[in-house]
């Protein structure tokens, strides 16, 4: 921070202007602009946490003026600044005991409420999603999961495609937490939503939706192999998916994956059931270019557990 910049004096000076005084009306518009200016100066000085507090002060001014959207925008900027300050501590391996994270989460949540109150559901869901992704980026998968679920619920009002992608991220959080049944629940929900959409309108199965459907089914199958559930323990929907990958099932109408990829996943299922580690290792090389990071980790777990 610049030594010539007296942050606290400037902050107090602006705050004093909006205190109630006899026969003098506080000028909240002017104060809001001055807090915004001080925020920009502090950001330039790389003092994210102090800039965040100035944004909070600006948000309070906008609240007093009844500018709900401007208040939400100020809260969102404050949330980002507090998270930035927290990230600096984490990267520096500073034992700060979540010094700025609670404030960041609170500001994100308040911004979501503000946008929702004004009927701006798309913006509210984007903010909720940003919070979830930020939490996941610092290893807070448990907290991130809850916010991914909330964001997915909001996105159903504006974009079902975004909602499906966000639910898949919630499933991946459960995987990071070693909660495979929880991950399976979210994946099943995604598959059911897509099936319902296709049943209502076959033309809704766009390339993007088909890609999501295929990726989710691969993850679903890998998790089912790790859970090692007996046929008697499976629900009807789960049984139908797994039956698709048996040699006896030759109904191509039920297939979600393209033929080459289907045969590879089918081979993984059969090799796992036969505890054929050599075949699984060969299939791992063949499949890796077509799998995402979580699917690669799941496949590695399958090989490890089959080899035990």
UniProtKB/TrEMBL annotation:
Pfam families the record matches: SNAP
GO BP term (any one): vesicle cytoskeletal trafficking
GO cellular component: early endosome
Name the UniProt record assigns to this protein: Factor VIII intron 22 protein
Organism: Clytia hemisphaerica
